[in-house]
Design goal:
Number of strands: 4
Order of helices and strands: HHHHHHEHEEEHHHHHHHHH
Oligomer: single chain
Distance between the termini: 62 Å
Mean pLDDT: 93
Structural class: mainly alpha
Strand content: under 5%
Largest sheet: 4 strands, mixed
Strand order of the largest sheet: 1-2-4-3
Bound molecules: zinc ion
């Protein structure tokens, strides 16, 4: 225990208290509006669908609260509770922890352990909550194979990366953190590029959008925006869930716009075209690139901090770890950085929502905004997303503006 212990505990308690307070507000707001569809949606959303969205949001939120409590307990158990020291002991203790591969093994073991503890909540979310509201289409077999594949990827990509960073930490001298940052950035850019064609297809099937009637409309739209036409795909999202969505992914030559098959089924052609125009807005305004740059700057600050903390005795002692090695510093930093970085959440969410407004404005400049409005209403209805979030909760957490605000913004464009 030292002053840093107190700072850490204070930050953890504060972030948890904010979360608790916001969630209580959110729940109360949703309950208070459960019995009436907001005016703007009265003609498009039934009371039954509105109430389903309220109940679904509350049920999901309760699991989320439990998960948060659990992750605080796991974090405290690993650090001040001596969990990390225990894991280091399994791998041979203090003397071995300075080896790059044993350090990597300790880090991966702790990460795996934390994931295993948090697994039951995720099983409950999929097979109880999603099931109850009619969204789950995943089988136990599918769930298990997804999990196995995720862990395999973590091992194949994460293990060499962690080992390389640990090696740089030990071999390069005072400015190791600059090189480590450059390596991590290169890998993250490579992953952004590889994700659409190499990673995502491991989990889902992607087929080019082949509706003939739709194709002609889309070609025109794509040409107007200078987007390569082979980049539009339909994903078999229905393999796992009934939720529908669309997203823009990848950089450079590997850009893609992806529609979930569930979305393609529920939207009219004009509405799909409007959603496409919105996604093209993200492309035109370079939102993926901007987010990559923002994350690169934040990561650089993180690495500079780690470069300082790695030599600070109080950092290890304050977090209950008795072995001072590079692996321990990296592991502790990976565990506690999210606690402090979490306070940036509302800032990041604000910029994400600004990107959504920009993409909407772009879509509205290409096509009738009413089609995008209709598509959004269907998306909210089919996904049972709440139309009445608490304003503070959504300001803090939402990457997309609440439905009512977003639609008002779009309709403002129509005038
Ligand atoms: Zn968007």
């Amino acid at each position: 225990m030292n002053n840093f212990t107190l700072i850490f505990l204070f930050a953890l308690a504060l972030s948890f208290a904010i979360e608790l307070w916001l969630t209580r507000r959110h729940f109360a707001h949703i309950r208070a509006h459960r019995n009436a569809v907001p005016d703007a949606f009265r003609s498009s959303i039934t009371l039954e669908a509105h109430q389903k969205a309220a109940d679904y949001t509350l049920a999901k939120g309760k699991v989320g609260q439990f998960e948060q409590l659990l992750s605080v307990a796991v974090l405290l158990g690993l650090t001040l509770g001596g969990g990390i020291d225990l894991v280091a002991g399994w791998w041979g203790g203090a003397q071995t922890a300075s080896s790059v591969w044993l350090g990597t093994a300790i880090i991966l073991t702790v990460m795996l352990l934390a994931q295993i503890i948090e697994l039951p909540a995720s099983i409950y979310q999929t097979f109880v909550i999603e099931q109850r509201f009619g969204f789950n289409r995943s089988t136990v077999r599918q769930f298990a194979s997804d999990l196995g594949l995720q862990w395999l990827l973590t091992l194949l990509i994460g293990a060499p990366l962690i080992a390389l960073i640990l090696w740089v930490m030990g071999a390069v001298g005072g400015y190791w953190w600059l090189l480590a940052w450059a390596i991590l950035q290169s890998v993250s850019i490579l992953m952004s590029w590889a994700f659409p064609t190499l990673i995502a297809p491991l989990f889902n099937k992607f087929t080019p959008l082949e509706d003939e009637a739709l194709r002609a409309r889309i070609e025109t739209l794509l040409q107007r925006c200078g987007f390569q036409s082979k980049g539009i795909f339909v994903m078999d999202g229905s393999r796992r869930s009934g939720h529908g969505n669309a997203y823009f992914t990848g950089i450079g030559s590997n850009k893609r716009i992806v529609f979930f098959d569930t979305l393609v089924e529920s939207l009219e052609h004009e509405e799909l075209e409007a959603v496409l125009a919105h996604e093209l807005g993200h492309f035109k305004r370079r939102h993926v690139l901007k987010m990559l740059i923002a994350s690169a700057v934040l990561t650089l600050i993180g690495f500079a901090l780690l470069g300082w903390l790695v030599n600070a005795d109080w950092f290890y002692a304050g977090l209950g770890v008795h072995v001072q090695t590079n692996a321990m510093a990296l592991l502790l930093f990976m565990l506690i950085a999210p606690v402090f970085a979490g306070f940036l959440q509302p800032v990041i969410a604000y910029f994400q929502r600004r990107h959504e407004f920009e993409a909407d404005s772009f879509a509205a400049s290409l096509a009738q905004p009413d089609f995008l409005v209709n598509a959004l209403v269907k998306l909210y209805r089919d996904n049972a997303s709440t139309l009445t979030p608490d304003p503070l909760y959504s300001a803090y957490h939402y990457s997309h503006p609440p439905a009512a605000i977003r639609i008002a913004h779009l309709q403002g464009k129509a005038v």
